[in-house]
């Protein structure tokens, strides 16, 4: 099965309105001719509206970086999938390692978030990945297995129509130390195997697994050349239109 590449930019806690709109508008022009790759940018909540306007009518979709498990109510500081959709998002990132690490998000909470986001009509990029300590301690497979089995527990076949998995080894995020294409392939194949065991061969075959962690224009092609690497979730290099556009184009 050929899987449509999915390349997303996670802007994290960066870009006020001015630079956000400028970046999005520039990107729109740079990737205008790209077909066959799904492109998503995930800015901070406060600029979603402005960025959405800047990319209107383009081949770039809008995503949120997080959402809660309720539609509305007394949950100060949270945002719902319905609110993200209302401002034009079609995607949301769930379970980024920074959410797990700094905000204490557990597998159980992330499972609830993923289910609720899907039930609310958003597509989900569900992040997993081991720390350096876990990898060096021989725990990588066990960690990925736990994150997949608990994080995706109870998802339906229909949920998988709008769900991608992002493998982001924590040691490669923001460090400049990218996983080798072989390391990425090994982890992605392992994760696909987990999905096959937990769900079905058809779902495992169809689900897109993105790689994230120090993706740059000059390593994108080699990583994408691996059979189980179906796209990227890009941090730092997504903050500038030219480098993100170069990643999209180099991955073709
Ligand atoms: P970097 O590309 O900056 O390493 O970040 C990756 C990431 O965390 C994307 O979600």
Description:
Helix 1 links the parallel strand 1 and strand 2. It contains twelve helices and eight strands. With 252 residues, it is of the alpha/beta class. The mean pLDDT is 97. An eight-stranded parallel beta sheet has the order 7-6-5-4-3-2-1-8. It has one domain (11-68, 76-94, 115-250): Aldolase class I (TIM Barrel, Alpha-Beta Barrel), CATH 3.20.20. The protein binds 1,3-dihydroxyacetonephosphate. 1,3-dihydroxyacetonephosphate binds at residues 10, 96, 168, 173-174, 212-215, 233-237.
Highlighted features:
single chain; 252 residues; alpha/beta; TIM Barrel; eight-stranded parallel β-sheet; 12 helices; binds 1,3-dihydroxyacetonephosphate
| Strand segment tally | 8
Task: Fill in the CATH topology.
Answer: TIM Barrel
- Main sheet: strands, sense, barrel: 8 strands, parallel
CATH superfamily caption? Aldolase class I
Radius of gyration: 17 Å
| Each distinct ligand | 1,3-dihydroxyacetonephosphate
Order of helices and strands: EHEHEHEHHEHHHEHHEHEH
Mean pLDDT reading: 97
What percentage of residues falls in helices of 4 or more residues? 40-55%
How does CATH name the architecture? Alpha-Beta Barrel
Residues in β-strands, percent: 15-25%
**Would you state the CATH class?**
Alpha Beta
Terminal Cα span: 17 Å
Number of discrete domains: 1
Give unreliable regions as ranges: none
Biggest sheet strand order reads 7-6-5-4-3-2-1-8
């Amino acid at each position: 099965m050929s899987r449509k590449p999915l390349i997303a930019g996670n802007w994290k806690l960066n870009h006020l309105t001015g630079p956000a709109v400028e970046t999005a508008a520039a990107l729109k022009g740079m990737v205008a001719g790209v077909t066959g790759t799904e492109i998503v940018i995930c800015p901070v909540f406060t600029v979603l509206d402005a960025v959405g306007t800047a990319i209107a009518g383009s081949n770039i979709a809008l995503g949120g970086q997080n959402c809660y498990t309720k539609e509305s109510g007394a949950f100060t500081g949270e945002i719902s999938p319905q609110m993200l959709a209302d401002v034009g998002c079609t995607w949301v990132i769930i379970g980024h390692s920074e959410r797990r690490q700094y905000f204490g998000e557990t597998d159980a909470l992330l499972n609830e978030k993923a289910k609720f986001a899907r039930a609310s009509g958003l597509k989900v990029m569900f992040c997993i990945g081991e720390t350096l300590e876990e990898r060096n301690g021989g725990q990588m497979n066990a960690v990925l297995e736990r994150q997949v089995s608990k994080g995706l527990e109870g998802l339906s076949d229909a949920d998988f129509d709008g769900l991608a998995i992002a493998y982001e080894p924590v040691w490669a995020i923001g460090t400049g130390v990218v996983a080798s294409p072989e390391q990425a392939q090994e982890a992605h194949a392992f994760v696909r195997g987990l999905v096959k065991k937990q769900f079905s061969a058809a779902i495992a075959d169809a689900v897109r697994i993105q790689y994230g962690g120090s993706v740059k224009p000059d390593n994108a092609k080699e990583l994408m050349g691996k059979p189980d690497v179906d796209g990227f979730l890009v941090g730092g290099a997504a903050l500038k239109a030219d480098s993100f556009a170069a990643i999209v184009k180099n991955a073709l």
